[in-house]
Specification:
- The chain is globular.
- The protein has one domain: Ribosomal protein L30/L7 (Ribosomal Protein L30, Chain: A).
- The chain has a 3-stranded antiparallel β-sheet, with no helix packed on it.
- The longest helix has 9 residues.
- The chain has 2 helices and 3 strands, in the order E-H-E-H-E.
- The protein starts with a strand and ends with a strand.
- With about 60 residues, the protein is of the alpha+beta class.
Length: about 60
């Protein structure tokens, strides 16, 4: 399965609570924190909702 590397590059301050919880569900929450996930439809959906705060790299 394809893997994606997700890095938070923008702050969650002044963002809706739903977006903050999505970041936490992805394992993020602090700037420049990076996590790797399998590219499942559920993960890609969460990444799509907060893509304006992330940098995404595909493997």
């Amino acid at each position: 399965m394809e893997t994606i590397k997700v890095t938070q590059v923008k702050s969650a301050i002044n963002r809706p609570e739903r977006q903050k919880r999505t970041l936490l569900a992805l394992g993020l929450g602090k700037l420049n924190r990076t996590v790797e996930h399998n590219a499942t439809p559920q993960i890609l959906g969460m990444v799509n909702k907060v893509q304006h705060m992330l940098r995404i790299e595909k493997y």
